[in-house]
Structure formats: structure tokens, C-alpha cells
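Reference record
================
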Amino acid sequence: MTIAKQRNPLRQLRPVLELLADGEVHSGQALGDALGVSRAAVWKQLQKLTACGLEVESVKGRGYRVPGGLDLLSAERLGASLEPAAQDLLRELLLRDEVDSTNAQILQRLEQGRGHGVAMLAERQTAGRGRRGRQWVSPFGSGISLSLGWQFSGGVQLLEGLSLAVGVALAEALDDFGVPGVTLKWPNDVWCRGRKLAGVLLELTGDLTDRCGVVVGVGLNVGLPESEACSIDQPWIDLNQVRPGIGRNELAAAMLSRLLVLLEQYPARGFSAYRAAWQERDAFAGRRIILEAARQSWVGYARGVNDSGALLLDTDSGLRSFHGGEVSLRGAQE
């Protein structure tokens, strides 16, 4: 496994980030020394961090601090926490302070033939992507933004149900840290206490009938600032609300460890190996739901999923199956 050091637009501010990460007050002089600028110029530089979604507090007569501190991504800590099997499968680990989209970056690498087994994590995304063209809100250091590239031979049919299997892997990683009440919402969401904790976005490239590449993108909320979360258009939750104190590096390593093994084994095992585990966590099992796609909608009772990951809906006209894509799901009145 190759570990690539940080390379990003915020590189100049990295020494200050590392100072402020402890949550303590640091004088303007100390921050100026770290930045290589005068004390008077410190505030101007710190405003760049504020623009990234970080809360930097000025303590009169003493200096500056980031309330609560920062759990910065660390290649050393993350790499050391990976399971041995995952270390063998991971070819390169890329950490960035800021990118447009980790999915876009890994997708580009796959198209260039150098994305297989490559994982990227970013402290902040400026154009994070969710399903159906939605933006994924990812302020600096507030979550886990992870993308992993993988090449498959045999065509896209081998990948049926993969996004659901990824959800199972993420839920099991969260179990390792004692996160309570984790469920799965078809087809791409990880819920906790009835609200969205994480989302999965798969993007494909290459020959969909033969050799193709997939990017598994995961966005997980750890500690979203209220000022940034106001733009989220659905009920959400973060880890700090249910299980504070989980290290981002350790959790990201647990996620990667499970995802790498999953991708390696998926062509042979398929979704059927994960179906029972998914259904045990089905957030809508047995409930009356509405499925909507474009201008059509269907009403019925959720009856789990089949071996390809299609949602089974018990309607007045019988049991019907629905695949992912543009189909969305929301709770209906009983």
C-alpha cells in the first residue's frame, strides 16, 4: 500500500490546523510563526479556514481556538488501523484537505487506468455529490468523505445490489464502534434513529458489458456544524449526537477494511450473500410506503429485497420489484 501525503490548496494553512486541532487557545504570535506571517496578518489567514466551514473563535487578549478541536485525517493512524487483508488490497491511500469531489477524482483515475484499489479521503469537498444530482454537504473535518475505485471483469450485471451490500458493510463497521440504532433505507442510505447518517453513491465507467470500473463513494456525518447543516433538505443525524468520541481515522479504516474485502469477493458472492443482513436492518420492513419515479408513484407494503437488490413492493395488483436509479422512497401514512 502506498500512502500519498497531503496535496491541496490549504497546504499553507496545515501547520495552523495542526496547532488548533487540540481545541486550546493559541496566541496570534504562535499562529503567525507557524504560518510565517506577521501577527497582524494572522486573522486574514484564519478567515480562509472560516470560509471552509470551520468555526475559529477569537478569545480577547489571548488568541484563537477551534471549539472542540479537530480530529484531522492522518495517513499514519488510518494505515495502522487497517485490517491486514485490507492492507494487501489497498494499492494507494490519498488524503486531501480540499477537493471538488472525491468521487470525481477517483473516477478520473479509473478512466486513466490507475484507479483500481485506490482510496481517497478529503477533509472538505467543494462539490460533493449525492444521488439524483444532489449536493452532499461536507464542511471541513465534519465527516468522512471517502471514495474507493475498483475494476471488475464480466460486466455491470455482476454489480447488482452492490450499493446495498456497501450499506451492510458500513453498518457493520459502525457496529464495531457501538453506534446504536443503525438501519438501512433502500437503496443507498444508512440511517440512525430514523434519520440519515450516511449516503452511498456508486459511479461507473468503462465497458459496462465487459471490463468496467466502479467508484464507491461514501459520505458519513460525524459532527456537522448547524450553520452548514441548514442547507440539508432531509432529516439528518451525525455521530456526535449518538456516539461522540469516535476517531475519524479509526472509523474510516474500519469502513475501508470492510469495503475492500467486499469488492474483492463480490463477483463470486453477489448480493445474495448480503441479502439477509440487509433485511435485518431494513428501515421500512413491513411498512406502507410510496415509491416515486419521475411522474409515477406506487403504494404498497415493503417486503424486503430480492437476490439482485430490487425492492419488493406488495401492491393491490400483486408483488412488484423495483431497482435503483431514480426511484426514491419515503414513509407513507398508514
Q: What stands out?
A: The longest strand covers residues 195-206. The longest helix spans residues 248-269.
